[in-house]
Amino acid sequence: MFVWDLVREERRASSAFLEVVQRRHAELDPTALRHFTNLILDHAGRALAISQVAPPEERSAIVDATILLDMSTARLLLGDVSGAHATLRPVLTLQEDMRTVPILRRLRGMRVPLGRVQETRAEWFGGVVVDAGRGAQAGDDRG
Fold first, then answer.
1. pTM score over 0.85
2. pLDDT in tens, 69-89
3. DSSP-assigned letter for residue 94
């Protein structure tokens, strides 16, 4: 079996669990959400580890990027913004010609988890969230 087959198998598993979590998020209690999100991270982590030890001719920066995007989205689902950002950093440095449809689709798919993090933080801080772009608070009429 080629290393690529193992990477693809693990990536498919992480992507499948991510799709389930994204489609059924509202139905999952916190324990189930953590369980499925950890499955995403486990499978994606294995896929990335296998890919990184593969011979150069079997590696793909685009495949690695899709794996990192799944991991980053999973971290957002867990509320780990800094972990999501660190995981996403290599993807954001990809050359323009490597930003393929699967990568762009996964980036767009991060909008909802990002919004949920914002909503969660608003709940944590009593509805007051600092908008770093404006320097004002969300809901504040200044600016």
1. no
2. 999 999 998 888 889 989 999
3. S
